[in-house]
Every structure is written in structure tokens, then in C-alpha cells.
Amino acid sequence: MIEVKETTAADLGDVKRLWADGDVMRFVGFPDGLIQTDEEMRNWYKWIESNRPALNHYSIFEDGKYCGESFYNIDREHKSAALDIKLFAFARGRGIAAAGLTHAINEAFRNGAETVWVDPVPENTKAIALYERLGFQQKDFPAYLAAEHEQYNSIYMEMKTERFAFITLREAPDLKDTAAEWFHSKWGVPKEAYLECMDQYLNHETEYGWYLCLCGGEIIGGMGVIENDFHDRKDLSPNVCAVYTDEKYRGRGIAGHLLNMVVEDQRAHGITPVYLVTDHTGFYERYGWEFLCMVQGDGEPDMTRMYIHR
Q: Which of 116, 162, 189, 271 has CA atoms 20 to 30 A from the CA of 109?
């Protein structure tokens, strides 16, 4: 399971070790590593703490093992955030960098950035490929950064927020019919079934909610919570259901943000754990979900995977 968490003083030893690794640091000008004293690390951490949330640093773990870091730093004047991601060699090529960077991107946007940017050197082809996959575009350095970076042989790549809005259906009940039609179009479940569940939620007959991501007022992602998502383990409830993000917006952390929103909202109403069924492996683990068991879907020939978030 991949976990991206805000760095604490307890993580400073791991960060110090990461920076001292020449393989990790070679593309940022330290081929022999950046050696820091414990005092220098403590002073750096004080700087991080005193400037949150305009900037923040995250430690990335897989199954409890430290893998690397991600970071953002927002320029309030220009509403842009510089990003950074570094991983030990053993952690590369497994989706860990995408998870760590996506977390930093989402937090930068959430804290006021309208543009996020990176500046890899041309030789770092794997990093450039990752940035392109996440939706970054190569452009000329903006004027306010050009002078600072003209001495470096680096590439400017940016991503702009499309001002995603994450809401519950209770915050926009007028979207009920549109949302039911949207979910129906993605999953083929009758629109009336979605409307029934949504009405129960809007009328406060249940706290099993419906959660949406909007861009320009249009629904581009969503999911809900129901008693049972059509499987034989009726004791494992409630279930997150109808998880979907429109294809052009995938890889932007939308589903992950919605999943976290669901878990937090349900827990706030005393509902925990929550479950979901899926055929995917490796995705839900990034957001704290654990594989629990196999279950039999109604009318399905094969068993499917059941996950739990405790």
C-alpha cells in the first residue's frame, strides 16, 4: 500500500538519507549526494513548519518502507507552485512517483495555486515522461522565472488547475436529476435506482452519500455509498459504488480525492469501516484501502475483490 503523508520530525532521518544518495540527487546538481547535518535538517524542517500551507513536504511510503519525497512551494504573487519529487531507485517504475506527485499537486491547488510547474533537465527522460502522463505541458519559462533559470539547462513544464469542485449532492441538490442521468450513462444501472438512493440521502433518511467532482459546472467524476453493491456478502456494508471519472480527466487525482472525501464524511457520521468491490489492483491501496476477501457478484460467473477502509 502506498501512503503519502505530511512529513514530521520523525521522518528527518529518512529525508537526510534520501538527499545523501547521489543517484537520487544527480539530476539536481548533487551527483555525490547532498550531505546535511542533523542541525541543518532540523532548521530545514522548522522552515517547512513555519510556512505551511504555502509550501509543504510529504514523505512517501510503500508498505511502511520509506521511498522518497514530494514537495510544493506556492508563489502567492503569481499563484503558481514549484513541485519536486524524488525517489530511491528501488521505488521507481511502480506508480509510486505518480501517487506522490499527484498528492502534492492536489494540495497545491487546494491551497491556492492555479498553476503547478516542474523544471526537469532534458536528460531526465523518465521524469519528463511521468510529467507528460500526468498532463504537464512543455512551455517557455514565464518571465518572472526566466532570469532565475536561464543559467540552467532545464525544461519548463506546467499544469493549470481546471478549478475542480468537490461537493456532496446535499450541497447542490438541484443536480440530482443530472447526477442520476450521469451515473446511469456510465454504469447502465436504471436512473430510477440512483434517484431513489439520492432522495433518501437528500431527505436525511440515510447518511449514505453521493459525491461529485465538477469542472465548469459539469459532472466529470463521482461515486456514492449504498448498503450493498450487488454481491453475496451482505454483512460487509456499506459499500462505495459507481466510482467513475471521465476519461479525459483521469490521472489527475480526482478519484482519490473523492475516495478520501467519502471516507472522511462517512466517519464523521460514525460509519466505519466502509467497503467496495472492484477488479482493480494497486489503485485503491494508494488511498488507504486494503484487500479483504473475494466475494461473489450477483449474476456474475467469477469472484471479485472486496476492499476495506478501516
A: 271
